[in-house]
Design brief:
Blueprint (H helix, E strand, L loop, with lengths): L1 E17 L2 E15 L2 E7 L9 H10 L10 H18 L3 H4 L8 E2 L2 E3 L4 H10 L5 E5 L5 H11 L4 E5 L6 H13 L2 E5 L18 E4 L9 H4 L5 E4 L1 H4 L2 H13 L3 E4 L6 H4 L11 E2 L22 E2 L9
Parallel strand pairs: 5-6, 6-7, 7-8, 8-9, 9-10, 10-11, 11-12
Antiparallel strand pairs: 1-2, 2-3, 4-13
Helix pairs in contact: 1-2, 4-5
Length: 315
């Protein structure tokens, strides 16, 4: 058994901005798992918000004999997904067959509008106004102006907004009436994760989704009453294995589901397509931001759906 680690970079079509900063490329780690002449692969994105760096994640992968030896996070994700890919290739089956699950079907994915000036966000909204679901990054001083600009550019799209922990409770309360007026369907992570308790007794005319606050199924109990949805991302759960458990337990506890991603290539998105069944929102648009993706890549059709991966890519 041997793992090999590759640091890779994919240029984006433009600058992608959220409340915490901007990037023009997606830097990822690709992990190969070699055993018995078969190679499986997985991908992760080390995330500074969660105390990760490329160096720390590489060290974790190099020190681990199996994903179970690692905590939730990017390192475990890459290893776990690489081993699922290896199992599928070794067995000559698809991962969903190994899991005794139905084959995944195409799912409509949201498209994310980067945080920018109201004028720039209006232009972007007009460009993507035909998409059924738009996710709008917020977290600036002129958030309401940005959102109104987006709504004017995309009057028929379902809007999800994501503040990436940038608001405080006073801003949230001040924004909600206008968000209702603009027809926002979901608010993702408005407050810092440490402030979740402030949402416990707040009226929620618009459903709230936990992102930075929800990593694994262990988080669900403390999120009860604060959030209506959870955003499942493989780089938070530490791979497909825990993501499947979180998917099942979140539904059982009454949470709605969003299936999300980091800014990464099709290899990162591929395992997440197994989670789309039963999810109210799918947000697997990372490759749509790529100037150049992997080959083979995930297929996105003209109905704005992401398709499950070919076996050559993963699983």
């Amino acid at each position: 058994m041997k793992s090999r680690i590759f640091r890779e970079s994919f240029p984006l079509q433009g600058a992608f901005r959220i409340a915490r900063g901007a990037r023009t490329e997606a830097q990822v780690l690709r992990v190969e798992w070699h055993q018995e002449g078969v190679c499986g692969q997985g991908e992760c994105l080390p995330y500074v918000r969660y105390g990760e760096s490329f160096e720390s994640v590489i060290a974790q992968i190099e020190s681990a004999s199996s994903p179970s030896a690692l905590p939730p996070g990017a390192a475990r994700n890459a290893l776990d997904c690489a081993q699922w890919d290896w199992r599928a290739k070794s067995a000559g089956k698809r991962v969903w067959e190994l899991l005794d699950r139905p084959a995944p079907t195409p799912a409509v994915t949201a498209y994310t509008l980067s945080l920018d000036t109201p004028e720039a966000m209006a232009r972007s909204a007009r460009t993507h106004a035909q998409r059924p679901v738009l996710k709008v990054k917020l977290g600036a001083d002129d958030d309401l102006a940005c959102l109104r600009a987006v709504r004017s550019g995309a009057p028929r799209s379902t809007l999800i907004i994501d503040a990436n922990e940038a608001w405080d409770i006073a801003q949230y309360r001040a924004m909600v009436p206008a968000l209702v007026e603009l027809g926002v369907a979901l608010i993702e992570q408005p407050l810092p994760a440490d402030d979740d308790a402030m949402l416990l007794h707040e009226a929620r005319p618009i459903a709230l989704c936990a992102d930075e606050s929800c990593h694994t199924s262990d988080d669900l109990e403390r999120l009860q009453g604060c959030y209506d949805y959870v955003n499942i991302k493989l780089d938070k759960t530490g791979g497909l294995s825990e993501a499947l458990a979180l998917h099942t337990q979140a539904q059982a506890q009454g949470f709605g589901l969003m299936i999300g991603c980091m800014m990464a290539s099709s290899l990162s998105m591929a395992p997440a397509t197994l989670l789309c069944e039963g999810a109210q929102y799918v947000d697997l648009d990372g490759p749509l931001w790529m100037a150049q993706d992997r080959s083979p890549a995930l297929h996105y059709d003209n109905q704005y759906c992401v398709h499950p991966p070919h076996a050559e890519l993963w699983g």
